[in-house]
Amino acid sequence: MRDYLIAFLTTGAITFVLSWIVWKVAIRYRLHPEIRERDVHKTPTPRLGGIAMFFGLVAFFLISTQLPGFAIVWEQPIRMWALLAAAALMVVVGVADDLWDLDWMIKLGAQFAAAWIVVGIGGIQILFLPFGSQVVVSSWLSISLSILAIVIVMNAVNFIDGLDGLVAGVCLIANAVFFAYSALLARDFDNSPETNTAVFITVVLLGVCAGFLPFNWNPAKMFMGDAGALLLGLMMASSAIVVTGNLPPQLLADNDQFGRSQLIGAYIPMILPIVVVLLPLLDFGLAVIRRTAKGRSPFSPDRQHMHHRMLDMGHTDRNAVFVFYAWTAVVSLSVLLMYIGTTAGWPGLYLPGLAYLLIGGVACVLVTLPPSRRAARVASDTKASS
User: What PROSITE patterns is this protein classified in (predicted)?
Assistant: First the structure.
């Protein structure tokens, strides 16, 4: 755990310093695009934070090659270098889009290319799926599913990047939960290069998000742009695939602890990576349906994302961001509690997680309601009690 704390603090410090440098350069040379109709901010703001995030990540990747505690992560160096190569491609394309607004076909093609680098060269693939006692996926299906999953998560994360601190904070919470899950899995069942690589990626992403968030907090000095959002999506999808998609069937199906609940043992490792990015995936799905129903490209921009709707409901920028944080924490932590309850042999198995989900869900619904409606409800309850 000491090594991971060093990774978090070092990556966070490097990213913070680089963010300050990038921000100063961007302000000095006016490297910021004009405000678009769908934008929430009113002042031209640099969108080059992804550059600082990328080099913060790269810096600790390189540092980790000299640290004995991360030797297991570098047992298959091709996997790590493929991740960095794919990340570099996404950052270059993202920065170009942030500055010159590239055609969506170019961006999508680059995303598929980056995903292929991770899958085809790095070998990060979904090898098992949780059907029954988990089934082995054929090679062509493995490559196709893995590439598609990475592209979907990249776009999902990118789609919710519309409010100050939203993506950085949501990814901070999501990666913290996935870090805990991966670390527990590595400790209790599968201390392999795959699970340790997932833990390593998530803790580095935690540092990247924590180091950048001070510059992105409302009112933001700088945005991460497509470069940062696509980088986070790429790495989060890869970390999920490298651990979950490589869990051997016998590990979960035949394990004595998981044997108490085949449903939990078989499905939570696949559920958790999905729920930690549930809000981005939901927003992405709704945007695709909404736009295609109107005969438009699913990647054509509009002002009807979930965060836009929150603002239209009367929430302030910060309140809307906190609502997203709350939903992310409640949903992801509840599934993590189900996993812990199962592996720890609690009498109720996953009931503590379900209880947390129910109580937290009700609380989140209440804070999501339009402020005027909440105020009216509080006044009504006060009047009734008196």
Answer: MRAY_2 (PS01348)
First to last CA, the chain: 54
Q: Tokens 């078989």 identify what position?
A: 266
For the chain, percent helix, then strand, then coil, each to nearest 5? Answer: 75, 0, 25
The answer to whether the CB of 250 falls within 8 A of the CB of 171 is no
Per the CB < 8 A criterion, the answer to whether 201 and 209 are in contact is no
Helix (H) or strand (E) holding 97: helix 77-100
Residue-level pLDDT at 247: 63
128 in helix, strand or coil?
Answer: strand
Report the alpha-carbon distance of residue 350 to residue 90 in Å, rounded.
Answer: 38
The residue assigned the tokens 């490559």 is 143
Give the pLDDT score at 273: 62
State which residues of the chain have pLDDT below 70. Answer: 33-42, 129-137, 188-190, 245-273, 276, 342-353, 372-386
φ, ψ of residue 103 in degrees (nearest 5):
-65, 145
Residue written as token pair 């803790």: 203
Rounded Cα gap, residues 16 and 22, in angstroms: 10
The pair of structure tokens assigned to 312 is: 């239209």
Q: CA 363, CA 150: separation in Å to the nearest integer?
A: 32
SS3 category, 129: strand
Token reading at 83: 């991740």
In the chain the beta strands, taken as DSSP E runs, fall at: 128-129, 135-136
Cα 163 to Cα 217: distance, rounded to the nearest angstrom: 9
Q: What is the dihedral of CA 196, 211, 334, 164, to 10 degrees?
A: -140
Burial class (CB within 10 angstroms; exposed 0-12, middle 13-18, buried 19+) of 274:
middle
DSSP string, 142-173: HHHHHHHHHHHHHHHHHHT--STTHHHHHHHH
In the three-class reduction of DSSP (H, G, I as helix; E, B as strand; rest coil), residue 248 is classed as coil
Q: From CA 216, how far away is CA 167, in angstroms rounded?
A: 9
Residue identified by tokens 């995303």 is 111
Can you say which residues are annotated as belonging to the binding site for Mg(2+)?
Answer: 158, 226
Alpha-carbon Rg for the chain in angstroms: 21
Q: Say if residues 218 and 41 touch (Cβ distance below 8 Å).
A: no
Task: Name the DSSP class of 185.
Answer: H
- Binding residues are 158, 226
What is the largest distance, in Å, between two alpha-carbon atoms of the chain?
69
pLDDT at 201: 95
